[in-house]
Design goal:
- It is a single chain.
- The two termini are about 10 Å apart.
- By secondary structure, this protein is of the alpha/beta class.
- The chain folds into three domains: about 5-160 and about 375-460, FAD/NAD(P)-binding domain, CATH 3.50.50.60; about 165-230 and about 315-370, FAD/NAD(P)-binding domain (3-Layer(bba) Sandwich), CATH 3.50.50.60; about 240-290, no CATH class.
- It is built from twelve helices and 16 strands.
- Bound molecules: flavin-adenine dinucleotide.
Length: about 450
């Protein structure tokens, strides 16, 4: 019988994992079944083709999907955009084209006994087969697929519904999906974007392509912090003291003191604080694992928003665009809390309270939910995720950051046992590693998991 590895989700993680398995396959004859509910492999939410040319937030030279070939993406980009430079922030849709090419090339060079099967459909449940202990991916409209291993590469959960929006029901001025924006907004309209992170920047840039004819934009988040812009800093500029940092990992306050002092040191010697952030980011998984749970909780409550705005930055052009919109008053960034939203004909009246201030009201034509992924998986309405939780095959971590995972992303079940058949790969690994959001971190996880699966399936067939 052939070995079967089923990968549920053909976005970034699923595609990179499949490509790795095709390049370095298990010794035994293997089918790699890549299952995607959308229309294309290799794109997912981030690298989809959209009306607006959203940009990558990392220079081309640092975005290879293959750690052994760091210039791979740059070479691909230069074949399509001959003037593309190593430090350019290129379109995200081009990165999706690249991921498709990566998969295609890996498929062509795979040995004959390793086959890639692309399946388009939505997996609704994963069940255990009694007869042979394998797993089965269940669909609504096609026969199940039996597999020796199943890897969940489902991507980010959608944002939580805006709680105040329930009062206005299905009002057409509420957009829960930040990528579904009306094309008819102009100078006479106003928009409230809930959230001040990377999605807010995407929305503001898309709505203000023509600044003079753009709607008035308001944003709101608790702290009003927006992402910092990228620069051409040297990513390997800082050689900090790993051991000293790790020695502080009993207290998040001590880590913060060290991080601030490192950033000051770098700046005082003519460098860029981003070099210090890059150094800490590489150390983050080790730091995270050493932090006691109450200290991790303290980080999430008090520091995460600050870390995110310094760690997940925006391309310089976007930084300039946002600064210009703020200068002209077209974009008003607010810190505060929404108290209520009520319908007023086709518009919405929003009452919000600035930090430490009295309530204010705002009447807008559109409210967009840009609050980011909802990692509280127990309230997920996704059929697959909720069925996995209900069956006890996966479980949430104590801080609601994602899913518990063992070595190589092995799913931890409701009894705390790491599975040797079911794995998770994607941003919810942050529960274990903290840094598991950006493409290169997920690529590294995909490479480790592929090597592990290749070894496992070989030995289990021996
Ligand atoms: C908007 C955005 C922009 C980003 N930009 C950058 C960037 O510039 N640089 C960077 O380093 N990182 C960036 N990231 C971060 C990172 O690259 C992505 O989060 C990464 O693409 C995550 O990959 P994934 O495979 O987990 O999710 P996705 O790529 O979203 O793929 C998940 C796939 O699973 C499918 N799926 C889900 N459930 C099922 C099911 N039940 N059955 C079948 N298929 C299913 C979905 O349709 C989807 O295609 C960005 C992230 C986002 C959201």
């Amino acid at each position: 019988m052939r070995n079967t590895i089923a990968i549920v989700g053909g976005g970034f993680c699923g595609t990179v994992l499949a490509a790795n398995l095709l390049r370095s396959p298990p010794a035994a004859a293997t089918d790699i079944v890549l299952i995607e509910r959308g229309g294309e492999m290799g794109r997912g939410v981030a690298y989809a083709e959209r009306d607006y040319p959203y940009l990558l937030n990392v220079p081309a030279v640092r975005l290879s999907a293959d750690s052994g070939d760091p210039l791979q993406f740059l070479r691909f980009a230069q074949r399509h955009m001959p003037h593309a430079d190593a430090e350019d922030f290129l379109p995200r849709a081009l990165y999706g084209d690249y991921l498709q090419d990566v998969l295609l090339r890996a498929e062509r060079t795979a040995p004959a006994q390793t086959r890639l099967k692309r399946i388009f459909g939505e997996v609704l449940r994963i069940t255990r087969r009694g007869e042979d202990n394998r797993l089965a991916a269940q669909f609504a409209d096609r026969p199940p697929i039996a597999a020796d291993r199943v890897i969940l590469a489902l991507g980010n959960p959608p944002p939580p519904p805006l709680p105040w929006a329930a009062a206005v029901g299905e009002h057409s001025a509420i957009r829960q999906d930040p990528w579904d924006l009306p094309k008819t907004l102009g100078l006479q309209h106003s928009v409230l974007i809930v959230g001040n992170g990377l999605t807010m920047v995407d929305i503001a840039s898309a709505l203000c392509l023509d600044e003079n004819g753009a709607p008035q934009l308001h944003t709101i988040s608790r702290r009003g912090l927006i992402p910092q812009p990228q620069t051409t800093f040297r990513a390997t500029g800082v050689r900090g003291d790993h051991a000293a940092f790790l020695a502080c990992a009993d207290s998040i306050r001590r880590v913060l003191v060290m991080a601030r002092s490192l950033a000051r040191e770098v700046e005082n010697s003519g460098g860029d604080w981003r070099e210090a952030v890059t150094f800490i980011r590489h150390l983050a998984p080790s730091l995270w694992r050493r932090l006691p749970l109450p200290e991790q909780r303290r980080f999430v409550r008090h520091l995460q928003a600050h870390w995110d705005t310094h760690r997940h930055r925006i391309p310089p052009a976007m930084g300039e665009r946002i600064a210009s919109l703020r200068r002209s008053g077209k974009l008003r960034v607010n810190a505060g809390r929404i108290e209520s939203i009520v319908a007023q004909g086709e518009q919405l009246r929003v009452t919000w309270r600035p930090r430490g201030g009295a309530p204010q009201t705002l009447t807008v034509d559109l409210v967009v939910n840009a609050t980011g992924p909802d990692y509280v998986v127990k309230r997920s309405t996704d059929p697959l995720l909720s069925s996995l939780l209900a069956a006890g095959l996966v479980c949430a971590d104590a801080l609601h950051l994602g899913l518990r995972a063992g070595p190589y992303g092995a799913c931890v079940d409701a009894q705390g046992r790491a599975s040797d058949r079911l794995y998770y790969l994607g941003p919810m690994l942050r529960a274990e590693h903290w840094e598991a959001t950006a493409a290169t971190e997920l690529r590294d996880h995909a490479e480790r998991l592929a090597a592990h699966l290749a070894g496992l399936t070989s030995s289990s067939q021996a």
